[in-house]
Amino acid sequence: MSKTIINVCSIDFSVKEELESISEYLVKLGLTKKEAEVYVALLASGPKTGMELSKLTSDPAPFVYRLLRRLEKKGLVFRISDNPMIFKAYPIDIVVSSLLDEREQEFKTLLSAKDTIIKLYELHIDRRKKSKELDFIVINGVTNTINVIGEMIERAECEIKNMVGIEGVERIKYWHILEYEKAISRGVKVKILTSIDPSDVPDEIIEVSDIKFLKIPMNARFVLVDDKELIIITSQEEDGIMSIYSRNKSLVKTLSEVYVYIWGSI
């Protein structure tokens, strides 16, 4: 911008609310609240020293001078005298256009970076998935175990393999029956292997699953989803449950093969 004296464009500044509205819009365009107030005060009152402006804005003179120098660097005001230091505001239309150009340039920069941002995020997600493949997460408590199993059922896309005892059958009946019904509606197959007496299995569980009964007791207790993730119930005492959740490919594959072998032998 050429540092020549330019007449302030004709805007009616007689109403205080109008000045405040202009300041608010300038803040939306990137100025701080105080920068906008000082600019508008200078625009409305004409050329002023920092001392004179400080009386209009009720701010300390050193603070106002710092704001004026910042506005000068941004090309929104300029000096018409160095001794004393007198500042004048560029017309509002020039200032608004300048601020809009800056915002537009920032938007173009962000827009051009869109593909890069998306690729970085996808890489981040991929790394997180790979890092989780080796995780063995210990889960303490009945409620936490139930919640994790529920989340696994919600993620299921193809098949859920259950190996359960009487406590697992009760868990399905009282906590997961609706989740299994939703999974089936998505086309998910539900299999249950159990060694309990068939008469102890509620009808609602039989309706939502393909169930087979083992002739010998099995201490293994686990839920395997889509051959991708599993939860093993390692202990079940009167005072609670401890389980292990994992996505470890080797472990998941091994238990899946064991399950398929037992299932096929019955």
- Radius of gyration, CA atoms, in whole angstroms: 35 Å
Identify the strand order in the major beta sheet: 4-10-9-8-5-6-7
Helix/strand-derived category reads alpha+beta
Q: Could you name the CATH class of the largest domain?
A: Alpha Beta
Question: What do you see in this structure?
Answer:
By secondary structure, the chain is α+β, with helices and mostly antiparallel strands. The chain folds into 2 domains: 16-111, Winged helix-like DNA-binding domain superfamily/Winged helix DNA-binding domain (Arc Repressor Mutant, subunit A), CATH 1.10.10; 133-265, Endonuclease, Chain A, CATH 3.30.870. Helices cover 54% and strands 20% of the residues. The chain has a 7-stranded mixed β-sheet with strand order 4-10-9-8-5-6-7, with helices on both faces. The protein has a 3-stranded antiparallel β-sheet with strand order 1-3-2. α1 (16-28) packs across α2 and α7 (142-155) runs parallel beside α8 (166-185). The radius of gyration is 35 Å and the shape is rod-shaped. The N and C termini lie far apart (87 Å).
